[in-house]
Amino acid sequence: MGHVPQRLTILHTNDIHSHFEMVSPLAAEIERQRAAAGEEPVLLLDIGDHMDRAAVETEGTMGQANIDVLNLTGYDAVTIGNNEGLTFSQEMLSSIFSGLQCPVVCCNFVETATGEPPHWMKRHAILEKDGIRIGVTGATAAFTSFYSLLGWDALDPETTLREQCLLLAPQVDILIILSHLGLPADRILAERLEGVHAILGGHTHHMLEEPLMINGTAVCGAGKFGRYLGRLQFERREGQPGFSLVAGECIPIDPGLKEEIVGPAATIHLERGREALQQTVAITDRELPLNLQGESPFGNLLAQAVRRFTGTSLSIVNTGQLLGPLPEREVTAGMLHALCPSPINTCVIKLKGLDIRIALEQSLTEEFYNKVIFGYGFRGNYLGSLAVDGIKILYDPQKIPYDNNIAVFVEGNPLEDDKEYNVGTLDMFTFRAGYETIANGKDPVFLLPHFLRDLLGMELQRPDSLDECMLTRWEIKSE
Q1: CA separation for the pair 341, 348 (Å, rounded)
Q2: CA–CA separation, 335 vs 321, rounded Å?
Q3: Does residue 206 register a pLDDT over 90?
Q4: pLDDT tens digits, residue range 373-413?
Q5: In the structure, what pLDDT confidence band is assigned to residue 200 with cuts at 50, 70 and 90?
Q6: Which helix (H) or strand (E) holds 466?
Q7: Spatial separation of the C-alpha atoms in residues 221 and 304, rounded to whole Å
Q8: Do residues 186 and 192 lie in contact, with contact meaning Cβ atoms separated by under 8 Å?
Q9: pLDDT tens, 262-283?
Q10: Does residue 277 sit in helix, strand or coil?
């Protein structure tokens, strides 16, 4: 009688970004795959950015909803993405991940204070399934300057992964990397690291219908938002020294699928999240309208909030951060979260007058205010116009854009092109997103962990803030 080969199925997800409407369909497909494998072992892994604070479930439960979903779906190991690492403080992460029933694996993320991973994280894990030993390590995108402000050191991923692979390879049958680094980095790692069976990817939201085989390593990615489930099968035949890949694919998830455990739990978390966000932040005596194509009181309020918080003489923000007008009367935390969901932080930069002027001129053009923006922490739709505080602008709507059609004043003095100004603005602009000349600013100081919605709450509580936001910054020149 012939020996049955040893077989292992690996299922993987990435960049779910708190799309809770997909967690039940995904869990149903995972159950289906487990049933199809029968007695054979199945390993389920997540590659980070499972959490996104734009979702009520995540914001209102401080990530507990995501942990619950990971536990109930039965993950065997996960790594973290920048949406976990950068949008929660050290204390929050500790309380979030302490409740996870599987290891969090990441080797390039350590506490600045100790040089060690936090208590809830391991540099690697060795998982055993039916006598097969699977070594799992991981790495997350090293946003070094941001992480250092939160008390973390993000180390070089290649160096730290190489150490872990050398350590694990002799001890395991299959070696897997959970990489929240992005596809370009994964391709390089596959070329340079030896003995790795698969690099399961994320961060760049790439969907590979079948794995890229590079230097004997399967490079994989399952898209975004829970729309796909990645699946790999490894086999070891009798007389073979090791496991080899026999199948790899991404399975599209039917949003109509349902199961009885994860779906109902997600619904409860949505209700809990909504309740938690019902606390009153301020009571207003008027509605604040919003205009993404020009000036409006709500845009001005955001600019005021940023100028106050950054302590600068002038601030520049894009109105696309706001998703609608601010209603009159009771303003709750949930309202501010719904109107300003992006996990974006402020920063102070030294910016030349000319760069300010160019951005303000661009703000008058449809090419800019109607620009669609993806990534950079942005959770809006359009870039929107620029809202400012501490600046006055006279402009002539009849003139051709960039034909010297604006006059800009800072504290009553004309803006000087060569002078450097201390400007309060948004971290998103430092990545050259949207109004790109703002990224020419020098010496950025990032102010973490407060988000724009936190700043709006503080500004709404400040006396006179509503009167000030009604005052126009952009005035039409009268000839």
Answers
A1: 21
A2: 14
A3: yes
A4: 998 899 999 999 999 999 999 998 777 665 667 999 998 89
A5: very high
A6: helix 465-470
A7: 42
A8: no
A9: 999 999 999 999 999 999 999 9
A10: coil
356 DSSP assignment = H
What value does the mean pLDDT of the chain take?
96
Amino acid at 232: L
Please give the Cα distance from 372 to 368 (Å, whole number): 9
What is the per-residue pLDDT across 29-43, written as a single tens digit (0 to 9) for each?
999 999 999 999 999
Structure tokens at 333: 């935390």
**Residue 236 vs residues 3, 39, 132, 265, 387: alpha-carbon distances, Å:** 11, 16, 10, 38, 62
- Report which residue type is found at 30: I
Helical ranges in 209-276 per DSSP H: 262-276
**What span, in angstroms and rounded, lies between the C-alpha atoms of 288 and 454?**
17
- The pLDDT score that the predictor gives to residue 142 is 95
Token output for 149? 């402000």
Whether the Cβ atoms of residue 27 and residue 73 lie closer than 8 Å to each other: yes
Cα dihedral across residues 410, 415, 420, 423: positive or negative: positive
User: How many secondary structure helices (H) and strands (E) does the chain include?
Assistant: 15, 26
CA Rg value for the chain: 25
Band of pLDDT at residue 414, cut at 50, 70 and 90: very high
Return the amino acid letter for 303.
A
Do the beta carbons of residue 9 and residue 232 sit within 8 Å?
yes
> Residue 398's closest CA among 364, 424, 369?
364
Q: Where are the alpha helices (DSSP H) in 277-332?
A: 297-310
CB atoms within 10 A of CB 194: 12
> Would you give the distance in Å from CA 136 to the centre of its chain?
23
Phi, psi (5° rounding) for residue 301? Answer: -60, -40
| Span 75-87, average pLDDT | 97
> Considering only CA atoms, which of 164, 133, 138 is closest in space to residue 236?
133
